[in-house]
Amino acid sequence: MYFVDASHFVLASFLGWVWCFVRLYVRAASGRQRYNVLGALNAVTHELVTEINTTYITATSVCALLHKIASRGASVPVTLVMDNARYQRCALVTDTAKALGVELLFLPSYSPNLNLIERLWKFVKKDVLNSRHHQNFQTFQEAIDGCLTDLPTKHREKLATLLAHNFQTWDNVSILNA
Fold it and tell me: What one-character-per-residue DSSP string does 36-71 give?
């Protein structure tokens, strides 16, 4: 089972804390260059499969990710848990998934808390972007790629607790009439 979602990293300044008695000038990047990472996170092994570009995430990007996952030769059926983005629900993606033998499971609208990969994107943004200034787009890309490369080694212990399968559930809930 893979949890799939895209993160659109924007070259900009992300401030953590700024409080001072005198005026402080904070360096900021110019422009709005984006580094798009479409990722599929294995729910058990925490392995990350990515499709990366600097333009837009489209249905063809999702199909390329599907081919990467299918080429891994899994001996068990593969299920992708996805949100309701348009480019994930289109006929091209569903037809490609069917041809590759991959099951698509769509989450309810507006429920990012059910998608495990959202926790990973939050971790990457905190580790790479918060309170940091990148001189140019190349160092920005290298920082994100470095963090993603270090996930199974350097960040393994942090991710073990962050990517646990503890989702909030409600048992024996009574609904009050309004």
Answer: EEEEEEETTT--EEEEEESS---HHHHHHHHHHHHT
Contact 34, 6 (CB under 8 A): no
pLDDT-derived band at 176 (thresholds 50, 70, 90) equals low
pTM listed for this prediction: 0.82
**Residue 63 phi, psi (nearest 5):** -65, -40
Cβ proximity of 127 and 155 under 8 Å: yes
Residue 36 Cα distances to 22, 41, 62, 94, angstroms? 37, 16, 12, 22
Q: What is the pLDDT of residues 51-107, one digit of tens each?
A: 999 999 999 999 999 999 998 877 788 999 998 888 899 999 999 999 999 999 998
Answer for the pair 148, 35: CB distance below 8 angstroms, yes or no: no
In a domain, residue 18? The reply is no
59-70 and 91-100 are packed helices; what angle lies between their axes, rounded to 10 degrees? Answer: 10
For 125, the enclosing helix (H) or strand (E) is: helix 117-128
Q: Indicate whether 177 belongs to any domain.
A: no
* Structural domain boundaries enclosing 116: 2-11+26-162
Neighbours of 147 (CB within 10 A): 18
